[in-house]
Amino acid sequence: MATGNIMANEEQVLVLTRVFDAPRELVFKAWTDPKRVAQWWGPHGFTNPVCELDVRPGGAILIHMRGPDGTVYPMTGVYQEVVQPERLVFTIAVLDANGNPMFEVLTTVTFAEQGGKTKQILRARVIKRTAQAAPYLKGMEAGWTQSLERLAESLAKA
Asked: Looking at the whole model, is its pTM more than 0.70?
């Protein structure tokens, strides 16, 4: 089964730091409870009709993001490391129309207690990509930034 031309990667890393006005345990839970993740994952206007998380090393991730125009963007992944409530490491692969990965991102999220608030550092590193991945990768920073804005809104309601 061909998966397109996976290219060696010129290093592409995104690092976003954000302080949430919520305790670390609550922020960690917002990242690991599928019902909560479904509320904030993806850019503004997106929903997640499928959000299945098996939060343990080797556990699977399956998320279908639906854009405002109805287009569904399926993604799969695997948890590499889960250290509650300090750290999550997982891969996410965004799939094409045939179910093949267009690109894969290794994401590390750390959570640090900061006077009743939580300092979160998200590091997303592209580890594999195909030629068709370019337009999606151009939007990675905006997508994560908007997701974290939605996470902040979700935490404010918790």
From this structure: yes
